[in-house]
Amino acid sequence: MKKSSYPLIIISALIIVASVALLFGGFFSDRFGLNKGTIPVAATIFPLYDIVRTVGGDAVQVTLLLPEGESLAAVDHLYDGANLEDLSTIFAIGHGLDTAGIPEASKSKIFTVDEDVNLMLEQGSTASPYYWLSLRETASIARNVARKLAEIDPRNARNYEERLNVFLKNAAYEDQLIRDLLPQAGTDKIAVYGYDWSYFARDYDLDIVWFHPPVLEALPDDARSSLDDAVSTYGLVSIFSDMGTDPKPLLPFTLKGSTSILTLDTLGGLEDRKSYLQLMAYNARQLFDGLGGKAQ
C-alpha cells in the first residue's frame, strides 16, 4: 500500500463508522423490546443530546434546548420559552457553559455529566467546559448518561447498558482512526479562533500556538501581532474558526494571501454532522486538511 493512500483510507473509515453509528438504534429497539418514549428528558447542546438519544434509544423522549445552528452565545437566552416542567432530567455540561439560564424551579433537574471526566483547567483554576470535544472524555459522559437513565428508568437498564457498550466501541474506533490520521498532516501547530479546543488538542498531540476568544470587531493589537508571529514562525497555512463565531476579525490575515480560514464545529447537528461521531469525524478531517495533509 502506498503511504500517500493511507490518509484517504482512514478518512473513508471515519465517514463509514460515524454514519453506521446512526443506524444501530432500530436494531436495539427491536431486539430488546424497549418501552418506547416513556421518559421525558432534555439536553442542553446537540453533542450531549445525541449521546442521550443514542444511549436512550426509543425509551426516552429527548428535547434539545439549544436548537441546531444556534451559537453557544445564545444558550442562556433560549430557555425562557422552553417547557421544562414535565422533564425528569436536564442533561448538562456545566462549568458555566449551559445552565445559568435554566429557571430556578427547574435547576433541581440538572444532571451534569462530568463525573470521572479529566477536566482541564483554564488559567489554573476554572475547569474548561468543552470536554465533549474529547472522544476519550466522552466515554465518561456516555457512562454517566446511561447510569442516570437506568436510575430513573430501571425497566430499561439493560437496554441502556447494551446501547452504551456499542457507542463506546464506535467512539473508541473513531478515536483510533483520528490518532492514525492526524500525524499524517504537515504540522501539529494550530491557530484557533473562537472556542476552546484544548481537549481535542491534548488527545491528539496538537500544539495550539495561538488562541483568541470571539470578539465583536477587530482583534486587539497584541492578538494580531501574536497571530502574525505564529503564522510566520510556524508557516501556518490555516486559521481555524468555529462555525458559531463570525470570522470577520480574521479576514485581514486572509488578504495577505498565504493564510486561509477553515471552520471547526463545536456543536454540530447540521448537514454531515447530524450525530456526535459525525461531528468529531468532520473536525478531524478539517484539521487534517488545514494542517497541510493530503489524502490521495
TrEMBL record:
The keyword Mitochondrion does not apply. Keywords: Membrane, Signal, Transmembrane, Transmembrane helix, Transport. One of its GO terms (biological process) is metal ion transport. InterPro entries: Bact_metal-bind_prot9, ZnuA-like. Pfam families: ZnuA. GO terms for molecular function: metal ion binding. The keyword Cell wall biogenesis/degradation does not apply. The chain crosses the membrane at residues 6-28. Belongs to the bacterial solute-binding protein 9 family. This is Zinc ABC transporter substrate-binding protein.
